[in-house]
Amino acid sequence: MLVAIGIATFGFLTFKDNLEAMRRASQENISWSASQLERELTRFLDSLGTSRAGTASSTVDINQRFDVLWSRVAVFQRGAVGARLRAYDTDNAVEELFEEMKRQEVPVVSIKSFDFTSMANISSAFFPFGAGLHELSRKIIVGEEQKAAEIRAQMRDSADFALYASILTVVMVTGALVYFVYEGQLYRKLADENKALAEKFKAASEVKSRFLTMMSHELRTPMNGVLGLLALARASELDPEQKERLDQVDRSANRMLGMLTDILDFAALENAQFSVTDKPFFSNELLLALPELLGPVATQAEARLHVAAEGELPVMLCGDATRLRRSYALLVTYFLETAGARDIGLALTYSNGVLRARIEVDYVGGGWTPDLIFGERSTNADSFAAEALGPSVARALVSKMGGKIELGNTEDGKILLQIDVPVSALVPKQLKVQLNMQSAPMEIVCKSSVAGLPVDFVSTDSGRQAEIILHETGAKEETAHIAEIRAQNPNAKVFGIGRPQNPELFDFVAEMPLEAAQLRNRIVEALE
C-alpha cells in the first residue's frame, strides 16, 4: 500500500512540475520580447530617415523612439526573462547595442531639426545592429519552439506515467485486498480450529476433574471404613507387637486419606471450582491449631516442631484461616516426610497488611533440595513425584489468596521458606463475660478456656450489662435463678457449665468434664 501511494504521488508531482513549466513558458514569452526589440530599432531608424528626408521638422519622435528602444534593451538586463534572452545572445548583439546606445545618448538627446549630418551619423551607427537582432529573433523563435516541444513531450510522458502509476496502484491495492481477504479467511479458519481444540481441551479437563473428584470420593468412603475398623481394633486388648502394627496401618490410612484430600483440592483448583473465603479469625486460634494439627506428624518423623508468634500479632485478622492453616500444614508436612527434617520452626508475624509465616527447617541433607515446592523437578519432564502434590496444592492456595512463597536459606544453612499472604487486621470488640461459679477452681478453668480472646470479665455487682454469662449448673431452684439472671441481663446469652436439670433454660451447655475448645468456639462465634 505504501509503495502504491508513493508511485501515485511521484506521478502527480511530475505532472505538476510540467504544468508549472508550461505556465512559466506562457508567462515569459521571450520571442515577443526579441521581436519587439528588433521592431523598435527599425522604428528608431525610420524616424531618423524621415527627418533626414525633410518630411519631419521635429526631433520629438526620434527621442521617443530612442526611449522605447532603451526600455526594450533594458528587458535583457534583468529578471528571469533577461536571463533567458541573454542565453540566446551568443554574439553579444544586445550588449553591443546597449553600449552603442550609451555612447549615442548625448547626440540623440541634443539633435536639432534639419541637422542632417548628425542624423546620418546616428543612423550609420545603429544600422549594422539590425541584422544581429534579426538573427537573435530567429534563434529565439526556433529555440522556444524546441523547448515548447520538449515540454509537450514531457507532459505526454508524465501523463502516461501518471496513467500507468494509477493502473499499477489499482492493481496493487486490488492484490493487497485479495491477499487480506485470503489471510482473513485463513485466520478465521485457524480461529475456528483453535476454538474447537480449546473446547475439546476444556471438555477433557472437566472430564478429568470430574473423574478425580469422583474417584477421590469413592476412595474416601472405604478408607473411612478402614479407619473406623482400625479404631475399634485398637480399642481392644492387644499385645505390643499387634498395637505397633495397627499404629502403622492407621498412619498409612491417614496418609492415604490426606492424599485423597489433596487430590480433591488439586482437582477443584484446576477446574476453577475453588473459592477463598474472607472471614474474621483470631490469630491465637491459628497458632494453637498448627501444633495440634502437625504434632502427630512431627512425632512420627522424630522431629521437633516449634510454632510461635514474632512481635505483636493483631488479636483478630480477616482472611481465610482454613486455607492458611492448610497451606502451612501441607508445606511443613512435606518437609517432615521428605526432607528428613530434625527441627522445624514456624513463626508468624504481621506487618503492613501482610501475614508472614517463616518456616525454618534444619534437615539431614544427603543431596535433597526443596525444588518441588516450586514445581522444579530435577528429573525428566515425564516423571512425577507423589510428594510434590502437597506443595502444589499449598502453592495454589497461597496464590488464590493473593500471596507468594519465597525460598532461601538462613545464615546457619537452614532452609528458609517465607509465605506472605495479605490479610486485614481488625480491632475486635471486648466481649463482656460474667462468671457465676460455685467454686474458685471452676472459675479458673473457665477463664483459662477463653484465654487469648478479647474478653472483659464483669462482676455481678458492677452494674454493667453482660453479653455472655457462664453459669455453673446443679444448684437448687435453678429455674428461678436463671429467670432472675435473664431479667437483669435481657440481651445476654446464658451458657450452662455442667449438667443442668433443665437444659432448655440455657443457650448453650458445656458438660463436664469441660471441653474447652467447644466453649471457646461458641464464644468466638459470639465475637464474630
Walk me through this protein's architecture:
- With 528 residues, the chain is an alpha/beta fold.
- The chain has three domains: 2-163, Four Helix Bundle (Hemerythrin (Met), subunit A); 279-426, Heat Shock Protein 90 (2-Layer Sandwich), CATH 3.30.565; 431-527, Response regulator (Rossmann fold).
- Helix content is 61%, strand content 14%.
- The protein has helices at residues 2-27, 30-52, 60-75, 79-88, 93-109, 116-126, 129-235, 240-270, 283-300, 321-338, 389-400, 440-449, 478-488, 516-527; strands spanning 279-282, 304-309, 316-319, 341-351, 354-363, 404-409, 415-422, 424-426, 431-436, 455-458, 468-472, 493-497, 508-510.
- The strands form three sheets. It has a five-stranded mixed sheet with strand order 2-4-5-7-6, covered by helices on one side.
- Strand 6 (404-409) and strand 7 (415-422) form a beta hairpin.
- Helix 1 (2-27) packs antiparallel against helix 7, helix 3 runs antiparallel to helix 5 (93-109) and helix 8 (240-270) crosses helix 11 (389-400).
- The chain is rod-shaped, with a radius of gyration of 57 Å.
List keywords for this structure.
Four Helix Bundle (Hemerythrin (Met), subunit A), Rossmann fold, 3 domains
